[in-house]
Design brief:
By secondary structure, the protein is of the alpha/beta class. The protein is built from 17 helices and 14 strands. Helix 13 (about 345-350) links the parallel strand 13 (about 335-340) and strand 14 (about 355-360). Helix 6 (about 240-250) packs across helix 14 (about 365-375).
Length: about 425
């Protein structure tokens, strides 16, 4: 197998040129920083894990066989090293790459002039946590190993249930993290409860945003109709079909005032990946726009122009364990959210304040929520938008920087332990 090519962002100078000594290393295997919600999670978590005057090194094992795009400038304090192996990849090759990843990461750090003795913390996502990773890192570094856990899958999410290879691998990684990780970052309090162990620190960190990325909202007047946005990939987790059925159940005059934009999927993709009824789509043909996959800039533009983003998820299971990243992003854009409470959303979204809370995940619940939204005037909506942007400060990476940087490096005060084995939510300190 051809050895990795190491690509170091030219925007991040070498250690020898006066860059601050690295403290934290974050390992990933995403299309970073050009990609999706996972890449954004990595970026903001790395920023919040970087103490003032220090450097966080991101070592990203590029997941595709296509060559990574040209490196981009990262925010101050971050340094990117991209590992890339050209050529095709069968199952055996992919398995070897997964098992050898910790060795390749350490080699890349050594080539970049970063001694393992200067690393005060290593953080990696659950999907990269395996036995070889734990063994290699435990033998070579003397710092806490932190696992970032974002979800807990259930058999019902997959066509072949418990026999699905991805599900088996996910549960195996979860078991290893539960037994071997020094400390855990969990995206929700549900995962905190599930992963809590005596003497093992756990910090709950919801999806983070950089509020500076978001401009002031600029939707049209509500007198011209209600503009909704769904951004993401629909499926069993996000019930887009229920949203469409809720729109169809509105009385005809109200239904004609509603427009829904779907960003992230084409009509054909939505039909293939969800339980979308083509008859419903046909009935609402003039009220739905499918944009397909679009850039992040386009999503932010659509958020600015929408009155509400919409999110309907089933109760319990994986929906409770995760935390939808589209909610903090919508709030930061000043776009209130029309949703039902799952996970920790009740902590952040008050009915009539940051959004409209549905009574449940059914089509009639969506219809009733839309009826309420249609009764708002512009002044009432702008008040909700103001509250949404205020709430977004709770998710800003700057709010989290003191506690996350201390946690990843293994420096925790007694105040960080008031919730038992886990860390403290900044949000809850305020309450």
């Amino acid at each position: 197998m051809k050895s990795d090519e190491t690509l170091i962002s030219p925007a991040q100078s070498a250690i020898a040129s006066g860059e601050p000594v690295p403290r934290v290393v974050m390992v990933a295997a995403y299309r970073f920083p050009h990609g999706d919600a996972m890449s954004n999670r990595l970026l903001q978590l790395a920023r919040s894990a970087t103490p003032p005057g220090a450097t966080t090194v991101i070592v990203n094992d590029w997941p595709g066989t296509d060559r990574p795009p040209e490196p981009v400038a990262l925010p101050p304090g971050l340094r990117l090293i991209t590992l890339f192996a050209a050529g095709g990849g069968g199952r055996l090759r992919r398995w070897v790459r997964r098992q050898s990843r910790p060795l390749r990461v350490l080699r890349a750090l050594r080539r970049a002039g970063i001694p393992t003795g200067e690393i005060t913390g290593i953080c990696l996502p659950l999907g990269l946590w395996n036995l070889s990773t734990w063994i290699v890192l435990r033998l070579t570094v003397r710092c806490p190993l932190t696992v970032d856990v974002l979800e807990r899958h259930e058999p019902g999410q997959f066509r072949h249930g418990r026999l699905t290879p991805y599900f088996i691998r996910h549960r195996w990684h979860s078991l290893l993290a539960d037994r071997l990780a020094d400390q855990v970052i969990a995206i929700s309090t549900t995962l905190h409860r599930r992963l809590a162990r005596p003497n093992r620190p756990i910090l709950v960190v919801p999806p983070q945003v950089d509020r500076a990325d978001y401009r002031q909202p600029a939707p049209p007047s509500l007198t011209n109709g209600l503009r909704l946005l769904y951004a993401g990939t629909a499926g069993p987790k996000d019930r887009l079909a229920v949203v469409l059925e809720g729109i169809r159940r509105l009385p005809e005059p109200e239904r004609q005032r509603v427009r829904l934009t779907v960003a992230g999927m084409t009509r054909e993709q939505t039909a293939a990946m969800s339980d979308l009824d083509e008859g419903v789509v046909a009935d609402l043909a003039e009220q739905i726009v499918f944009l397909g996959r679009v850039s992040r800039d386009r999503v932010l533009a659509e958020l600015r122009a929408a009155h509400f983003s919409v999110l309907v998820r089933p109760s319990g299971g994986y929906a409770e364990a995760g935390f939808p990243s589209k909610v903090p992003e919508s709030l930061a854009a000043g776009c209130p959210v029309l949703l039902n409470h799952t996970s920790d959303l009740a902590t952040y979204i008050g009915d009539g304040r940051e959004g409209i809370v549905l009574a449940g995940p059914g089509a009639d619940d969506v219809r009733d929520g839309l009826v309420r939204a249609l009764t708002l005037n512009d002044a009432q909506w702008w008040q909700m938008s103001h509250h949404a942007r205020e709430r977004a400060s709770t998710f800003d990476y700057r709010t989290w920087a003191p506690v996350v940087s201390a946690f990843v490096a293994g420096r925790r005060s007694s105040q960080d332990q008031v919730s038992g084995p886990g860390g403290v939510h900044p949000q809850r300190r305020e309450q």
